[in-house]
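From the methods appendix. Each design record in this collection lists the discretized structure first, followed by the designed amino acid sequence. Records were kept in a plain field format so they could be parsed without special tools. The example shown here is representative of the layout used throughout.

RECORD:
C-ALPHA CELLS (271 positions):
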C-alpha cells in the first residue's frame, strides 16, 4: 500500500567484521549489542541507526490505516468484503490523547452494525490500526490466510471488520452488536526500536462492553522476524477450540498448543 514499507527492505545490512568478537552474535538478534564506543559516545553509524529506528517507531504511531485499500486486498485475497467502522476518536491525535474514545464505536458505525443480519456461531475478526497501522497493513492478510487454512471448512461463519482509530476493547463493542461467539482482534502493537510493525492477536469469548483484559488471551509479536504467521495461527486455532469447548477465555484459558496436532476446528453447536 502506498506510503507503507517494510522496515526490513531498507535496514542497513550487517557486515561481519572478523576483528569484532560481537559480529557473529549480531546475526542472531536485532538487539543492539556490542555497539562499541567513540570517546564518551556511540560510534556514528550506531547512533544513526538508533535515530532511524526511533523515527520509524514514531512514524508508525502516527501513520493512518488505509481501510479502503485493506478491504480491497482482503476481497482480492478471497475473503468476503469486510465492514469498515470507526471508533469515537475523530482523528489520530484525539486517539492518542483519549484512549477511552478508541474503545467505543461512533454513531455511524453502530447504525451500520445494527443493520447487519444476525448469524449463528459467528466468529468475528477485527483488523485494527492500534498503535501501528503498519502492522495490520503488512501482516493481517497473510496471517488470515494461515488462520483460514488451519480453521477448516466452516469459514462461512466468519465476519471480518476493519476498524479505524481502534483500541483492543473496540472488539467488545463490535462483537456485542453482532452477537458474536468470539472476537479476534488483530491490532498494531506499540512500536519498538526493532519492531515498528508488530501485530498482536487478542481473543475474547462472548465479547461485550464491560470485558476486561483478564477476559482476553493475547498472542503477540506476530511478524516474520518474530512469531511466524503459521505458528500464530496454530496457537489461535487451539485457543478458539478450547474457548468454544469451555465457553471461556482469558486467564482461565491456558495455551497448551505446543505439541497439539488438532488444527482443524470450525464452529460447533453449544452443549
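DESIGN:
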Amino acid at each position: 500500500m502506498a506510503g507503507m514499507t517494510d522496515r526490513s527492505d531498507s535496514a542497513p545490512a550487517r557486515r561481519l567484521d572478523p576483528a569484532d568478537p560481537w559480529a557473529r552474535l549480531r546475526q542472531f538478534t536485532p538487539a543492539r549489542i556490542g555497539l562499541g564506543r567513540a570517546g564518551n559516545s556511540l560510534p556514528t553509524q550506531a547512533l544513526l541507526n538508533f535515530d532511524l529506528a526511533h523515527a520509524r517507531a514514531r512514524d508508525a504511531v502516527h501513520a493512518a490505516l488505509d481501510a479502503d485499500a485493506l478491504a480491497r486486498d482482503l476481497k482480492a485475497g478471497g475473503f468476503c468484503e469486510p465492514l469498515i467502522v470507526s471508533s469515537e476518536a475523530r482523528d489520530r491525535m484525539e486517539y492518542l490523547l483519549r484512549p477511552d474514545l478508541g474503545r467505543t464505536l461512533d454513531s455511524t458505525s453502530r447504525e451500520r452494525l445494527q443493520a447487519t443480519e444476525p448469524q449463528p456461531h459467528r466468529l468475528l475478526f477485527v483488523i485494527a490500526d492500534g498503535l501501528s497501522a503498519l502492522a495490520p497493513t503488512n501482516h493481517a492478510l497473510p496471517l488470515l490466510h494461515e488462520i483460514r487454512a488451519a480453521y477448516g471448512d466452516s469459514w462461512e461463519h466468519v465476519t471480518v471488520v476493519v476498524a479505524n482509530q481502534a483500541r483492543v476493547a473496540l472488539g467488545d463493542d463490535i462483537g456485542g452488536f453482532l452477537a458474536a461467539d468470539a472476537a479476534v482482534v488483530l491490532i498494531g502493537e506499540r512500536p519498538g526500536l526493532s519492531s515498528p510493525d508488530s501485530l498482536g492477536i487478542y481473543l475474547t469469548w462472548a465479547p461485550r462492553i464491560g470485558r476486561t483484559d483478564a477476559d482476553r488471551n493475547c498472542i503477540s509479536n506476530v511478524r516474520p522476524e518474530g512469531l511466524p504467521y503459521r505458528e500464530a495461527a496454530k496457537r489461535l486455532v487451539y485457543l478458539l477450540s478450547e474457548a468454544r469447548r469451555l465457553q471461556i477465555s482469558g486467564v482461565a484459558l491456558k495455551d497448551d498448543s505446543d505439541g497439539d496436532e488438532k488444527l482443524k476446528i470450525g464452529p460447533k453447536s453449544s452443549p
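APPENDIX NOTE: The longest helix spans residues 44-62.
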